[in-house]
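Researcher: Here's my situation. A collaborator sent me these components and asked whether they could plausibly form a single complex. I don't have experimental data yet, so a predicted model of the whole assembly would be a useful starting point for our discussion.
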Amino acid sequence: MIEFRDVSVDYGNGPVLRGVDAVIGEGELCLVVGPTGSGKSSLLGAAGARVPHFSGGRLTGTVLVDGRDTREHLPRDLADVVGVVGQDPLASFVTDTVAEELAFAMEQLALAPTLMRRRVEEVLDLLGLAALRDRPLGDLSGGQQQRVAIGAVLTAQPRILVLDEPTSALDPAAAEDVLAALTRLVHDAGITVLLAEHRLERVVQFADAVISLTADGVATSGDPATVLAGSAVAPPVVELGRLAGWDPLPLSVRDARRTAGPLRERVLAGSSAAAGGPGSEGTTAEPGSFRSASAGRSAGRSAARSAADEPGTPTLTADGLHVRHGRAHAVRGVDLALAAGEVVALMGRNGAGKSSLLWALSGAGPRSAGTVRTAAGADPADQRPAVARRQVALVPQSPTDLLYLATVSAECAAADSQADAEPGSTARILGSITPGIDPGRHPRDLSEGQRLALAVAVQLAAAPAVLLLDEPTRGLDYPAKAELVAALAGLRRQGRTVLVASHDVEFVAQLADRVLLLADGEVVTDAPARDFLLDSPVFAPQVAKILAPAPVLTVADVRRALDAGAEPESAP
Amino acid sequence: MAVIEGPVARAEATPARGRGLHPLAWWAWAAGIAVAITRTQNPLVIALLLAAVVLVVTVCRDESPWARAFGAYLILGLVVVAVRVAFYVVVGLPDSSPVLIDLPTVPLPDWVDSLTLLGPVHTAGLLGAIYAGLRLAALIITFGAANALANPKRALRSVPASLHHLSTAVVIAVTVTPQLFTAVGRVRRAQRLRGLDARGPRAFAGRLIPVLQDALDRSLDLAASMDSRGYARGTTPGGGRHVTAALVVALVAGVLGTYALLDGAAPAWLGAVGLGVGAVVAVAASVRAGRRVDRTRYRPDPWGLRENLVAGCGIVAATAVVLGGWLDPGTLSAGLTPPTWPTLNVAGVVAALAAIAPATIGGGRR
């Protein structure tokens, strides 16, 4: 259906894609993987003729979409063959209500009104949107919006769907919804899907083929297991498979679980050896260094716990916190206490009140009732923002909102003077999070991960005791996420408190000591991360699902458990 | 309506259930009231019409953001009255009516001729300022009412096919503007997090850049999405020159006709003929241009009895005031020297009743 023949794309700063040759067959679900900036979006754009007709730049080679050459066809001429769905569904909506949005493409194609009615009904059923038909688009949840965006291109009955990170903004359950709808389209309607996604753990089991791009735009395509075995970005299940030396590489939790029997025994033995061994004493000497040992994490957590129990130690407390936005009651009576040297994850559905809670805690957002106290006993909302950020700093959901200068170095210098920090400290923090960012670049030209690092560095310049982050992993690839995990773990070692709102289970599994689960504005669970993540079917990370009942969350945990099991005598 | 519907869309128009009235019905009603307001200076009639408009909006509006914006129009109306009165008090000219308050006069340099700041406030001048402000406020609020009752996006869906691309562009502008305001708020909040709490031009510039970048990104996203969904693909290329030429002819004829109407020396027939020819050519060009845009409309809003009634109410209100003023010019305005209570004749009552009638017809949406 889609054929790339020696395709290269160049926007003027060196090629983004180099000589890509790939064929995507009829009815396939093809996954595009690669680090940020590797040209995934350009490849998807080329399939929909947006590159180069809409984006500019220079495309050499040939792209054939259902036999049509994109050199001669504009995106609008392909509307009946290719449906393109972007990352942010709200940005792509033209009309007000669900049914009108579904009809928009058909109106442009001049279909007869009776046919339009029928197709709108069919698509409403296919995507489970029938109950929402007349609802305003702005009132829908993120998952519903994304399904409407898919439906809006499906009504034109394209034979190909191109999706650029359709689940990056969604909570796990909503992402499942969207992916279930996609697999249904592939299996029942025979639609060819080209999909880019950072969180491979969500999609890789559905893929029939994978195009893997390297950072300099070279592509490898083929069978998922073969391509991912050598790929730089890989989901936890693949990494676990590589660690265990499984061949063929399992891609789904189900396949892995069926292969994992012997490994599970070894891990179980290893983790009981680590728990019963002398490890706990050794690790309390280094509280918070959770990455050093799996037992170390629980020790670090219990240290944080006991610190939290002592009066006067919490760095941030909230009592009876309520936030109302007009008629919506976003946060309903939240009490919490955050201890020094603790990383707490805030989880929950889209719209559960996570962002409202973070903003209220930072003192910058609205608060209807309740109190917030920092370690010094002050309320951040009563202080000037420039003072409050020395106690509690927030990195908002779109970190670019914080940035407004033309170069990275200018941003760093401005951050130093705003925080009264000594010159160069922001640049130093930035270097410790993500080394090697060219200070002369424009912040807009950085990758998502680099931009987030810059925003975090700007907020850390004031040396706050508590750092709040709202959905930081959105759009981050695995290496960028690993850098973020390391940076936040570093903060924990310095005795700072980190509260991070996230949908990303694997990210939380690598980092958090404690999880707060919000539902409908209330805290429904406040539990140690390990207990919570092992216990929940929705929030369990892949490794935990594969190796249950072994108490491991990440591949690193497994590696340590295996080491402990192999040489139980070696005390740290 | 028959002229402006596309050929295919008219074929099988299946209306959506539970929708409000056709937006153009509300616009016709509002236009009728606006005509009535401009044709009378009787503050009592204007106040009655204004009350009718507010009542109809209160009863008939839905929960859309447009409807919620009506309060802003009310406030704007109050501001208009206040500004008009303040202007009179500060720079108003003296007249012969009794002085209400004698404010001290602020002397101005000699070269400012015949203008005094403050000074005596006369009854007639003050009343006149209040009446004039009220009229302008009523017009603004009527416009706001049309906006609150008829979603402008849906109104634009009813424009002729030849204006399809233009109307889509307007719809996008209407959508993006509130997003721009949201973005300003979001960036301001985010920059406060950074400790930037300054006001003034520098802070404004710092906020402007992220907001504009955001707006640009969103517009590009939307444009890309529309392009990929086939927007503008139905246009048959070529043939545009005839339409352009026809529109130029229509414009020239219209200008000639208007000139002839306004200039008493020109022959009387020239005005009517010029305007007529202009209108016919413009409609023909529009229909022709509309044929070249190949697209259909999903569930167009139906025009039925209730639409006729609501639009008719507007026409009745306008006609009543115009006729009333023609038959009995004395009731058109209220006396200022000496101030007299305005008289309310039958025409005024009929106009107010007609204006309020849609409260019983137009409700019951959703």
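Model: Some features of this prediction you could bring to your collaborator: The first helix of chain B runs from residue 7 to 11. Chain B is about 65% helix and 5% strand.
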